[in-house]
Amino acid sequence: MTSTLRTKVAAAARIVGIAALLGAAAAASVAPLAAAAHDATSTPTPNANHIVGMYGDPAAATPYWRQQHSSDCGEMAVADVVGQITGHEPTEQQIISLAESTPSTAGPGPVWNPAANTDIGTLPVLLAHYGIHADNIQTTTSALLQDLSAGRIAIVLLNAETIWNQPGKRNSGDHFVVVTGIDTRAAVVHLNDSGINTGHDEQVPIATFEQAWATGHNSAVVTSDSWPGDDEMFVHAILLRSQSLGTRA
Questions:
Q1: Residue 28 CB neighbour total at 10 angstroms
Q2: Does residue 186 belong to any structural domain of this protein?
Q3: Which residues constitute the domain of residue 200?
Q4: What is the total count of domains within the chain?
Q5: Residues with Cβ within 8 Å of residue 71, at least 6 apart in sequence
Q6: pLDDT per position in the chain (249 positions), as tens?
Q7: CATH of the domain at 135
């Protein structure tokens, strides 16, 4: 999709003649997000549950954690994000089937191959299947605070041995996790980590997280907005609502 959600919403508004209504709704929702993003770099602010210094909502994300049963941590992270945004989380088999049948954008073959590692650049392709736009970027912890404040969700590539404090190779990114929150007061990052059976709301010191994340070059896949579900479905819902109100173009 080349246009953004807000562009599509504006287009829908023009079609059905409800630009004023949408403008008011957009102003009401965008302004708090902008304020939250600004606050993320200044003083600690409460999250949705009024916890000061917490960015994101780990408690709301925890129910979407599932433990992986194959070398599919990237795909399981995608399923987790889909669940958080849409409320309908794919099963492990469903997300693997999708990844096996989706051509990779990083090279020949499908997104998922049990004999190879999933490329982080292919995860946005899987998310797009569920109507979720996301970007593969290199970013920082400070930027993640702003993303979490705005309701966005991040999948990061990091070193598993470092966050699990286990022996092994610690100089490469080898594992995907979902960042569900950052507590700046406790200096802790909250994760949904499919790689271990205690990975629901896994809590890692910020310093340890940053050390592990650096091995993956601070790579992340970040959703582009906080609207739930498919943007096309959102525009369609607006059209249906306008029709029910008897709006004329």
A1: 9
A2: yes
A3: 44-227
A4: 1
A5: 114, 117
A6: 333 444 443 443 343 343 333 344 433 433 333 333 334 344 555 565 656 789 999 999 999 999 999 999 999 999 999 999 999 999 999 999 999 999 998 888 899 988 788 999 999 999 999 999 999 999 999 999 999 999 999 999 999 999 999 999 999 999 999 999 999 999 999 999 999 999 999 999 999 999 999 999 999 999 997 444 444 544 433 333 343 333 333
A7: 3.90.70.10
